Structure prediction request, 153 residues.
Amino acid sequence: MTKILMVCLGNICRSPLAEGILKSKLPQPGFIVDSAGTGNYHVGDLPDKRSIQIAKKYGLDITNQRGRQFTVLDFDNFDLIYVMDESNYKNVIKLARNQDDVDKVYFILNEIYPEQNHSVPDPYTGGIQGFENTFKMLDEACSEIALKLKNNK
Ligand code: 4NP
Prediction:
């Protein structure tokens, strides 16, 4: 069983989309995909309406998800932790207890642009087009992740 965690700041815009997209590309059972935010502003909340809308447009229902905050226990519960941007990376790494924890954390866009540490921009304060862009970037990255994970099985 491989366990993958998607992390952003609020856990309402980017990481819920990443969770929904990756889940849809992986066979069940065999993989657990979850998401969390480094902040606590949206604990218990549904994903942002615009993330729900874009997911629905592409055939995914993410309304079962609720916001939660990343905790140090996530290093024990997950094998791979994908962050959206540098600020997420720093906030997650701050909680790492050892090198094993650090080694689980990856920039999600490095899957398609290796070693570039590019960010998935936060679409929260913009319009729906930002969510469309977010979806496309995450869809590409998740296709790569799913391909690798399925080949390693
Ligand atoms: P996310 O976007 O990190 O992609 O979920 C955000 C959502 C809410 C906030 C920040 C980022 N916020 O500050 O409330």
Notes: The CA atoms of residues 18 and 118 lie 16 Å apart. Residues 8-14, 37, 41, 122, 124 surround 4-nitrophenyl phosphate (CB under 6 Å). The radius of gyration is 14 Å. The helical segments are 14-25, 49-57, 74-77, 86-93, 99-102, 128-152.
